Amino acid sequence: MYICTMNSKNLLITGGAGFIGSHVVNYFADKYPDTRIIVVDALTYASNIHNIMEVNDFKVGWKENVLFIKSDIRDVEVITNIFIRCEIDGVIHLAAESHVDNSIETPNIFVETNVMGTLNLLNAAKNYWGENSPNRFYHISTDEVYGDLKMDEAPFTEMTPYNPSSPYSASKASSDHFVRAYGRTFNMNYVISNCSNNYGPYQHKEKLIPVVINCLLEGKKIPVYGEGLNVRDWLWVGDHVKAIDTIFFNGRKGQTYNIGGDNEISNLKLIALIFDLYVENYKEKFLNAYNFDEKNELVPNHIKYGIPSKFVTDRKGHDLRYAVNSNKLQVELGWKPEKDFAEGMIETIDYYLYLKTQGWIPLDEKEPKIGDLVWTKGDGLSKLYYFGENSWSEDSDGYYIFVGGEDGITHWKPYIYEK
Ligand SMILES: NC(=O)c1ccc[n+]([C@@H]2O[C@H](COP(=O)([O-])OP(=O)(O)OC[C@H]3O[C@@H](n4cnc5c(N)ncnc54)[C@H](O)[C@@H]3O)[C@@H](O)[C@H]2O)c1
């Protein structure tokens, strides 16, 4: 097995406040206590900064080795200076606009962040590291760059030609090409992985699985695109994170690795699975939310009660099927998906239930006001979930380090940085 000799002491993780990024940050921060994790995230609507903060003994703070900088990856000056000031010697790049529906409505921002933002990071890395550097640039991409498959076609391999269907996947494909071009032109030590659909806690509510779960929690009808026959290969986010860890340290320079869950499920079947698990585990909540009476027939819940769903107009250009062959990663680097799907889904349902019972409000539902500090109580823990906008707008530079305070309240300090 090829072992990468790189040893990152100052690892830049972009998009670390997003769904997958926050799991990566938490995993790396715990597993590599001697590595300083520098998180750069613009904190768009899709992020939730609290997912990478710790709540201990009524204190909200940061893990010792995590340093957060609020910045846009397109900001040339800030990104350049982060490389210099933080002596970055490794990058895991996850920051992106990630929702296909949004890319159909507003494609430009996908090109700006996913293509121009990636290019900016590549330039900053190349300029600071120089050509032929052993430092690693890891670009996180998607299986959607390959387009879609007919029902009887073999899963995507690393050799499948790119054929993106949506503005989102086209922007990701473009960024993949730029990373490869920097590998070829400047001998940059890059790796790329193309992963299938992830599920798990911390995903923004706009995505399919949170939509399904939130409808169930609220007693609403679940919207189903088209006929619900589209197939996705679902992977537990924690398994993706372990693959990222494996590839970052052990992947071969200039290689691409596909990551998949070996878990193809049609949207209709996925909804039925989630429905059955939810009713099985939270019967009373389900009956109350929908005003249903209990039934005792010995059939699966989705047959017993009927799934409360409605068919809605299909997404434009909706990809029919994704399926990923991750043999290369499994054989070469020994990774495999481990999480039992039902177990992972219960954890995911529990998370969205927790958000509801905690009265947690995502930032996009309520604009922060100057000085907002809101505490909620539950399970004997208080959670600070909402910060005043002035926390990061007082200074003109726009990027800050946040430091846990001794008095139980998090202090937000400007990042000390000289232009
Ligand atoms: N979610 C999936 O199923 C999946 C599957 C395969 C690959 N991916 C890829 O993994 C990466 C992470 O996906 P995710 O689902 O966690 O996305 P996400 O939308 O949940 O998070 C993206 C993060 O990037 C940040 N961001 C967006 N624009 C930025 C900018 N201009 N500057 C700095 N930060 C910015 C956001 O604030 C957010 O925290 C993406 O590159 C995506 O293409 C996702």
Describe, in plain words, how this protein is organized in 3D.
- It is globular, with a radius of gyration of 22 Å.
- It is α/β, with parallel strands linked by helices and 419 residues long.
- β18 and β19 form a beta hairpin.
- α1 crosses α7, α2 runs parallel beside α4 and α8 crosses α9.
- It is built from twelve helices and 19 strands.
- The strands form seven sheets. Strands 5-2-1-6-7-8-13 form a seven-stranded parallel beta sheet, sandwiched between helices.
What's the SSE blueprint?
Blueprint: E1 10-14, H1 19-31, E2 36-41, E3 54-56, E4 59-61, E5 66-70, H2 76-86, E6 90-93, H3 100-105, H4 107-129, E7 136-142, H5 167-186, E8 189-195, E9 198-199, H6 208-218, E10 222-225, E11 231-233, E12 235-236, H7 237-250, E13 255-259, E14 264-266, H8 267-281, H9 283-290, H10 301-304, E15 309-312, H11 327-333, H12 341-357, E16 373-378, E17 381-387, E18 400-403, E19 411-414
Parallel strand pairs: 1-2, 1-6, 2-5, 6-7, 7-8, 8-13, 9-12, 10-15
Antiparallel strand pairs: 3-4, 11-14, 16-17, 18-19
Helix pairs in contact: 1-7, 2-4, 4-5, 6-8, 6-12, 8-9, 8-12
Bound molecules: nicotinamide-adenine-dinucleotide.
Task: Throw out a few tags for this protein.
two-stranded antiparallel ribbon, disordered N terminus, about 20% strand, binds nicotinamide-adenine-dinucleotide, globular, alpha/beta, about 425 residues, 7-stranded parallel β-sheet, 12 helices, disordered C terminus
